[in-house]
Write a structure and sequence with these properties.
597 residues, alpha/beta, Rossmann fold, 4 domains, seven-stranded parallel β-sheet, binds nicotinamide-adenine-dinucleotide, serine biosynthesis, plastid, NAD binding, amino-acid biosynthesis
Length: 597
């Protein structure tokens, strides 16, 4: 795999991909590099792995469908190692660029710490990401993607299968008959038709369960604080409060993610509010039920029956009271386990992981901002400009001044809602932090890294008159409460200030302090303040030429003729100390600074 030059390689590994080559030229993603896009909004992701020609390595830690494996193998070295102990996973991970898991592998902080910065993408081949430490992933700049749609129907079908099996005692009667008994009166069930089903969590699976339950003649209500009432109404479901749902239901089916706010949402207090004889189905996550409380509710008769596909601890212990309870039907987390769903999930996650490793855009990122592909395309040259302005600004800070307060101004003829600045902010952060630290910053960890280092980035918009055709007119970066090693970079109000624009797709520096300049931001830059007088450009150009240093651009900005001026000189090669000293010795030059872009 050749090193990618995509400006969207925001997850690139510093050790393998020199920072200076990132965003060297403002390329738009080629058509061939466009994502395998199927839905919704997209997120900038990227990972660059291995040296030029090296294939990335993907560790597949749980069984994945063949079609997905084939897709992965076309692009990467694929290591299928199942049933790894936590220690084995931590050992292997330092050799891997991507990891693919299902719900059976815990991807905790120690995994990210053990990866030594190489792990760029974790792919969760399924929906629930409660087994992945998202905070740790974000802190380590590791993207997490999931496969949120391919197993929806399978999970809904399993929920309905459990609902019907529970109501008609299928599992118990089957076991009884196989044990040689014929117990017709013992296994009289209850009917579904006309009963009230409360769906808790009206997302993808919940709404499919609701649709199917309506087909069975059930009255369906749902509770979901974030669901739209009209979406529910469209399939004949009424959204109600949590208390109304649990207190009026004959059947309750759980379909919310496991989060701190849903953990043990069905607890003693909730069971006490339920109708006596309620029946409960859980194909979401074991942790949304307080399992001890459910045992008590079953024993007291509040809950007549439960059907559980998921458990707090998986696999549950041999003496788990719910598994052994005669009124509980259990399956070993089979919700997503149909041939069709597993094939679909494998393809969905393989596409997402390969896309991320290629530096494309992922539709299913869990821990990075989602930005539409067309917005990213349009912003591409501004993404480059943003990082370079951050880099320039921080290099102008005098040693000993801590960077704490940064103000970014975006000037645009577009309305504030029409300009998504998250990628730009991330790249300014990257530019500000990378030159002064060993931290590698990307779109995933930019905000976290800034916060952790105590750098406050305030954003401001200036709405200009004129055509909103261009997303931005200029970006200005100001660093407050610092001294500058180039005094002319200070604005009238006392901040280091640099400003840039995009001209013909190329980022340009257009203002330093209060001096207007115009130099394309390629290669490196020398800024000199001088007494404005004839011959200065020639004098400096001669010194550089003698050292075979190519000048790509020169621009002089002055306050008034024959007063102070700032000369910005773009150079392709880095001048040595002696050359810089010679420039400094020119009598008309009052101060100068060399900046790497
Ligand atoms: N058993 C299985 O094999 C299996 C298969 C697929 C999904 N799942 C699980 O099912 C759950 C739902 O999956 P999905 O694809 O429908 O996800 P989803 O994100 O589409 O839906 C989840 C819904 O839960 C809602 N929600 C969040 N907090 C809530 C709360 N406090 N009360 C009520 N609703 C709340 C959300 O608003 C969302 O609409 C997840 O936990 C997932 O891991 C299990
Ligand atoms: O969240 C999910 O997608 C399901 O729980 C499926 O988990 P699995 O991939 O381990 O079957």
């Amino acid at each position: 795999m050749a090193a990618s030059t995509s400006p969207f390689n925001l997850l690139s590994s510093p050790s393998l991909h020199p920072r200076s080559s990132l965003f060297h030229r403002p390329l738009l993603p080629s058509a061939a590099a466009l994502p395998l896009r199927r839905r919704g909004r997209l997120v900038v992701v990227a990972a660059q792995t291995g040296g030029v020609g090296a294939k990335p390595t993907v560790l597949v830690a749980e069984k994945l469908g063949e079609a997905g494996l084939e897709l992965l193998k076309d692009f990467a070295n694929v290591d299928c190692s199942y049933n790894l102990s936590p220690e084995e996973l931590c050992t292997k991970i330092s050799l891997c660029d991507a990891l693919i898991v299902r719900s059976g592998t815990k991807v905790g902080r120690e995994v990210f710490e053990s990866s030594g910065g190489r792990l760029r993408v974790v792919g969760r081949a399924g929906v629930g990401i409660d087994n992945v430490d998202l905070a740790a992933a974000t802190e380590h700049g590791c993207l997490v993607v999931n496969a949120p749609t391919a197993n929806t129907v399978a999970a809904a079908e399993h929920g309905i299968a459990l609902l019907a099996a529970m109501a008609r005692n299928i599992a118990q009667a089957d076991a009884s008959l196989k044990a040689g008994k014929w117990q017709r009166s013992k296994y009289v069930g209850v009917s579904l038709v006309g009963k009230t089903l409360a769906v808790l969590g009206f997302g993808k699976v919940g709404s499919e369960v609701a649709r199917r339950a309506k087909g069975l003649g059930m009255h369906v209500i749902a509770h979901d604080p974030y669901a739209a009432a009209d979406r529910a109404r469209a399939i004949g479901v009424e959204l109600v409060t949590f208390d109304e749902a649990i207190s009026t239901a004959d059947f309750i089916s759980l379909h919310m993610p496991l989060t701190p706010s849903t953990s043990k949402i069905l607890n003693d207090e909730a069971f006490a509010k339920m109708k006596k004889g309620v029946r409960i189905v859980n194909v979401a996550r074991g942790g949304v039920i307080d399992e001890e409380a459910l045992v008590r509710a079953l024993d007291s008769g509040i809950v007549a029956q439960a059907a559980l596909d998921v458990f707090t601890e998986e696999p549950p212990s041999a003496d788990n009271k719910l598994v052994l309870h005669e009124n509980v039907t259990v399956t070993p987390h089979l919700g997503a386990s149909t041939m069709e769903a597993q094939e679909g999930v494998a393809i969905e996650i393989a596409e997402a992981v390969v896309g991320a490793l290629k530096g494309e855009l992922a539709a299913t990122a869990v821990n990075a901002p989602m930005v539409p592909a067309e917005v990213l395309s349009e912003l591409a040259p501004f993404v480059v400009l943003a990082e370079k302005l951050g880099r320039l600004a921080v290099q102008l800070v005098a040693g000993g001044s801590g960077v704490k307060s940064v103000k970014v101004t975006y000037a645009s003829a577009r309305g504030p809602d029409d300009l998504d600045t998250r990628v730009l902010r991330a790249m300014i952060t990257k530019g500000l932090i990378e030159p002064i630290s060993s931290v590698f910053v990307n779109l995933v960890n930019a905000d976290f890294t800034a916060k952790q280092r105590g750098v406050r980035i305030a954003e401001e918009r200036i709405v200009l008159d004129g055509s909103p055709e261009n997303p931005l007119e200029f970006i200005q970066v100001q660093i407050a409460n610092v001294e500058s090693k180039f005094a002319s970079a200070m604005s009238e109000t006392g901040e280091i200030r640099v400003e840039g624009r995009v001209k013909d797709g190329i980022p340009h520096l257009t203002k330093v302090g209060s001096f207007q300049v115009d130099v394309s931001l390629e290669g490196s830059l020398i800024l000199c303040r001088q007494v404005d007088q004839p011959g200065m450009i020639g004098t400096v150009g001669t010194i550089l030429g003698e050292q075979n240093i190519n000048v790509s651009f020169m621009s002089v900005g002055r306050i008034a003729p024959r007063k102070h001026a700032v000369m910005a000189i773009g150079v392709d090669e880095e001048p040595d100390k002696g050359t810089l000293n010679k420039i400094g010795e020119i009598s008309a030059i009052e101060e100068f600074v060399f900046l790497k872009l």
